[in-house]
Description:
120 residues; alpha+beta; 8 strands
Amino acid sequence: xxxxxxxxxxxxxxxxxxxxxxxxxxxxxxxxxxxxxxxxxxxxxxxxxxxxxxxxxxxxxxxxxxxxxxxxxxxxxxxxxxxxxxxxxxxxxxxxxxxxxxxxxxxxxxxxxxxxxxxx
Length: 120
């Protein structure tokens, strides 16, 4: 698991190689993190913490409209990263707008927002 500054937009990227990822069909993750107020991690009802990220599709560079998945990735320090797909094959602009307009504070709120994102 790794996190680092984004492309100058103030965001962070969350990344984990495929051998450390469980629940995403054998793929690794590398995406931009959404933020709850004051943090980068979303806490769920059980007290576990999650990164919520937008993972661009492999073929997104060939498309003027970036598409991908909204993922929940477990916080991990040297362990497996557990991934839950919250929204699949959605537009980056639509996902960013949904999280900007609703500003979730918890994992459950983020999951509800992601489910409502309509494919572009």
